[in-house]
Amino acid sequence: MTNIPLHATGHAWAKDSTLLRVDRERGIGWVATHYDGNLRVIQRVRGSDEEVHRATARWAQG
User: Which of 7, 15, 18, 22 sits at 20 to 30 Å (Cα–Cα) from 41?
Assistant: First the structure.
């Protein structure tokens, strides 16, 4: 499992083999998305940089 650094976009695999992704979307802000093994969205969080990175850190634990 790889962490996505604060103030950065990217993707990483969680311990449970789900996919985590952080993006910066114009007009929206930071978005974190958690996908299952079939690439269906499990959860999505929009908010500040810190909020979305906290969510991905939590999801990364599986």
Answer: 7
Work out how many domains the chain is built from and give that number.
1
> Which residues in the chain belong to E strands, given as ranges?
10-13, 19-25, 29-35, 41-47
Domain holding 49, by residue range, is 10-60
Q: Which residues contact 27 (CB under 8 A, 6 or more apart)?
A: none
Say if 5 falls within a structural domain.
no
Q: Is residue 4 part of a domain?
A: no
Report pLDDT digits (tens) over 10-26.
Answer: 999 999 999 999 999 99
Closest of 5, 3, 43, 49 to residue 25, by C-alpha: 49
Contact 3, 57 (CB under 8 A): yes
